[in-house]
Amino acid sequence: GQQLNQSPQSMFIQEGEDVSMNCTSSSIFNTWLWYKQDPGEGPVLLIALYKAGELTSNGRLTAQFGITRKDSFLNISASIPSDVGIYFCAGFNSGNTPLVFGKGTRLSVIA
Amino acid sequence: NAGVMQNPRHLVRRRGQEARLRCSPMKGHSHVYWYRQLPEEGLKFMVYLQKENIIDESGMPKERFSAEFPKEGPSILRIQQVVRGDSAAYFCASSPTGTMSYTFGSGTRLTVV
Predict the structure, then answer these.
(1) Are A20 and A6 in contact (CB under 8 A)?
(2) Is residue B1 predicted with pLDDT exceeding 80?
C-alpha cells in the first residue's frame, strides 16, 4: 500500500525559532493535507493543498505541494509553546480512497 | 453543530471481552472512517463506511473486528475477544459526500488488561 515518510520524527526547538518538516511518498497524491494532534485529542486539519506547486499559508504556517506530487513541506515560523504536538501529513487521491497518514513529527518547544 | 462524537473516551476491557466503540458523525456527513493509532505511531486506516454500506474495509483485520453504520444511529466498531495488542486509540472521522474534508473525533482509548 501507499506509504508516507515524515521527517524528522521529533524536534526540540527554542521558542521563537522556525520549524521545517517534510513528507515524501512512494506514489503520487492529488491532495496533501497537514494535521496537528494535541495530546489526548484527534487530529485537526491545518492546511490543505490541492495543486502541484501550490504554496498555502495559514497564519504562521506555510505548506507546499511538491511539483512531483510525491512530497510536501510544512514550515512554522516563530514557534510558540502551543505549537507543541504531533504534526501529520496525509495524502488523498479520490473520493472512495481513504486518507493515508504519515507517522508524524513530534514537536517540542522549549520556552 | 457538535463535531464528531466518539464514546466512550476511555474503555478498559479484559482479554476475551468485547469492545464496542461508537461514533456519531457531524450533522450532514454521510461518510465515516475508522482509524487506529498505536502509541508513537501514525493513524492507520481500518474501514470506510457510508450509511448501511461498507465501502472499503481493507485495513481491518479479518477476524474479530467488524464495523457498521446503520441507517439510524451511530457507527459502531466492534472488537470481539480482545487481546492486549488491540490496545490503541481508535479515531473516527466523518466527511460530507465525496470530499476529503475529514473531521476527526477525540478518539476512544482502548486498554486491554
Answers:
(1) no
(2) no
